[in-house]
């Protein structure tokens, strides 16, 4: 089976699970639960899709896939804003794999099965699913450390669909050189942002077709058609940049392509979410509407793992 066909099958399998188990009501139940995600759905993703095993080599109990496989799953989960601990877990796996000549096989196996939750702590204080993580790796950008003793607490955030935690190291051991985990994080988060932006745009287009004003659907007005076209172009262009960054990362990871992916994905998602609120009008900011959740996710994501301005500075430093 061709590589692309395998990835498409992976996408369809995840989409079917999300469709069945992660509708708007289920997402709200999950985000308000004690751990911040649906544990049953997480189990299904791990057992039926092997979501947490994708980047782990086969000899260490994984599926032997690539970064792009994890990106596909995160994009599909991003579409419906499904709260899961996948992003932190994949990053912890990549960090452990990069760490030393003898990676911690037991930890990797637990993460790959979905039995343990992982996170990576960057230089900011918030870690994705940090409050529920069992396996924690820290990085200062050059060295990786395994946090063998730590305390964690949930952090109050604007985006209820993504649980963040403050993790404090109590005991650490150095495990090796950082191969660019921040770049992998940027690319995976960008893929998730593209998924969310594309679904947010779909919902908005559908709303403008259904919403009637002055006796006709508002989507038939020329000005709105132009706005939809602009948003479609923004999302498509961002998707192309993110796909390039994924390909680069699978061969020769480049900090600049990761930074660029992050900037364009953040901009596209924020633009779409902002327009979605305007086009939906007052209903968009009611609790029942999903649009307010996309808006919060767009802004929460853009501030996560290094703000776009920091990524832009990194790009400028390389260009000039």
UniProtKB/TrEMBL annotation:
Pfam families: Acyl-CoA_dh_1 (PF00441), Acyl-CoA_dh_N (PF02771). GO terms for molecular function: acyl-CoA dehydrogenase activity; flavin adenine dinucleotide binding. InterPro entries: AcylCo_DH-like_C, AcylCo_DH/oxidase_C, AcylCoA_DH/ox_N, AcylCoA_DH/ox_N_sf, AcylCoA_DH/oxidase_NM_dom_sf. Residues 186-302 form the Acyl-CoA dehydrogenase/oxidase C-terminal domain. Coiled coil: none annotated. The keyword Membrane does not apply. Residues 4-114 form the Acyl-CoA dehydrogenase/oxidase N-terminal domain. Its cofactor is FAD. Keywords: FAD, Flavoprotein, Oxidoreductase. Belongs to the acyl-CoA dehydrogenase family. This is Acyl-CoA dehydrogenase. It comes from Mycolicibacter sinensis (strain JDM601) (Mycobacterium sinense).
């Amino acid at each position: 089976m061709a590589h692309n066909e395998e990835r498409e099958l992976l996408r369809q399998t995840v989409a079917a699970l999300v469709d069945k188990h992660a509708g708007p009501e289920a997402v709200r139940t999950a985000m308000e639960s004690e751990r911040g995600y649906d544990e049953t759905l997480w189990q299904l993703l791990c057992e039926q899709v092997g979501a947490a095993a994708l980047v782990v080599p086969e000899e260490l109990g994984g599926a032997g896939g690539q970064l792009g496989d994890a990106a596909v799953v995160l994009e599909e989960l991003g579409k419906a804003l499904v709260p899961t601990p996948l992003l932190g877990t994949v990053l912890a796996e990549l960090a452990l794999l990069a760490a030393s000549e003898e990676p911690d096989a037991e930890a990797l196996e637990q993460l790959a099965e979905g039995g343990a939750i992982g996170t990576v702590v960057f230089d900011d204080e918030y870690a994705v699913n940090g409050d529920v993580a069992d396996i924690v790796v820290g990085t200062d950008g050059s060295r990786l450390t395994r946090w063998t003793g730590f305390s964690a607490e949930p952090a109050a955030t604007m985006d209820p669909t993504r649980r963040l935690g403050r993790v404090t190291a109590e005991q650490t051991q150095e495990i090796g050189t950082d191969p660019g985990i921040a770049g992998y994080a940027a690319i995976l988060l960008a893929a998730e942002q593209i998924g969310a932006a594309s679904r947010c745009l779909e919902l908005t287009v559908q709303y403008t077709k259904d919403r009637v004003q002055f006796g006709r659907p508002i989507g038939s007005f020329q000005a709105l058609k132009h706005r939809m076209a602009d948003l479609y172009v923004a999302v498509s262009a961002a998707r192309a940049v993110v796909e390039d960054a994924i390909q680069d990362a699978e061969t020769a990871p480049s900090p600049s392509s990761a930074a660029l992916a992050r900037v364009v994905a953040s901009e596209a998602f924020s633009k779409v979410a902002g327009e979605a609120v305007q086009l939906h009008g007052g209903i968009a900011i009611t609790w029942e509407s999903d649009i307010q959740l996309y808006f919060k996710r767009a802004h929460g994501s853009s501030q996560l793992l290094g703000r776009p301005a920091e990524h832009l500075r990194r790009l400028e430093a390389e260009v000039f």
